[in-house]
Amino acid sequence: MTTAHDHRxxxxxxxxxxxxxxxxAGLPYWLPDGAAVRHTLEEYIRAAERRAGYQHVYSxxxxxxxxxxxxGHWAHYSDDMFPPMDLGGEQVVLRPSLCPHHAVIYRSRSHxxxxxxxxxxxLGGMYRSELSGVLGGLTRVRAIQLNDxxxxxxxxxxxDEAEAALEMIRRAYEALGITPARYRLSLPGPGGKYVxxxxxxxxxxxxxxxxxxxxxxxxxxxEGEAAFYGPKIDVQVTDGAGRESTLSTVQVDFHQPEQFxxxxxxxxGARHRPVMVHRSIIGSVERAVAHxxxxxxxxxxxxxxxxxLVILPISDTELPNAEDLARRCARLGLRARIAxxxxxxxxxxxxxxxxxxxxxxxxxxEAAGGHVALRLRDGxxxxxxxxxxxxxxISALVEAHSTDLWAxxxxxxxx
Length: 415
Known about the structure:
Blueprint: H1 7-13, E1 17-18, E2 29-30, H2 32-51, E3 55-56, E4 62-64, H3 65-71, H4 73-77, E5 85-87, E6 90-94, H5 99-107, E7 118-127, E8 143-153, H6 158-176, E9 182-187, H7 198-215, E10 219-223, E11 232-238, E12 244-253, H8 255-259, E13 264-265, E14 271-272, E15 275-280, H9 285-296, E16 309-313, H10 319-332, E17 336-338, H11 346-352, E18 358-362, H12 364-369, E19 371-376, E20 381-382, E21 385-386, H13 387-399, E22 412-413
């Protein structure tokens, strides 16, 4: 990783996140600009899930030890969990994943085959007891905000649901301006960390391999990378140093529906076991933001940028126009701030705002005509235009989650 794109350094320099030994290692906190990026990313995911027919839930970050004994986490994953806490004669733990809670939520109501697939999503906290030596920035943390979802469906619906999840991942990566390094079919390896159910492993592996083959996506199989309950399709990304990590995942699970005795009533009136498809579009918010910082060097796509428009009045005379523009931005949901002449020369303010997608310069001529001169982050300088036209153009690209800065062709001034 080049120093210039180390998310740990950039994150602090840009005021996105930080850590403090008093809070603890692996427990970063988010500063206002970082919180804006995180909130925008979370809302993008929630909106995409709503359009795809997901229902959102909330579940507690604590659970009884018995919950994880049933799910299999306690037997296969307890080394990565925080120790139990005694509470009222019971042992409770910080959850290492959300799937057991979602299985219980599904089980709380009876379901007909007509309701399937039932898509349940949550952006929820989970906790991993990571060793101090592997912690770093946002990529390895102990408190994780996970973009998680579980689809309860029939066996015949698994392929369509997994393929739809892969398409959601593709669209999200396009909007975020990132490219997957490769797709991996993660399989079990030697050792006792996996559920002993050979037939379930065979069926789920065959399903995922078939999905990848039909999608035309090139992939590699990797032993020892599966979840303890089933194989996965992992979408891998690389950082500036070529180190690889998993950002998104699709999994097929026959194990937990059986452990929690999940069922639905079929067309024949009998009880049938659903399949549980786990899917995460961006994985953990922390790792996703770390990758975005390094991928873009802090120059986020306009829709995701903590400040989308910086307003640059040439002098104090244009300040009322700048304040009016800032209010109009706020009404449109655009994140704008004013960098007035008290912050230095125009050139200095332009350089200071080099990572902001749009710079709106207002001089005497622009103020008199209700115009604004836009400078784009890529160096283009557009001809002065009415303020309304500028905001319409910016808003359209932001709402479309586009990585473009302007809808070409655009009239330009010579730099």
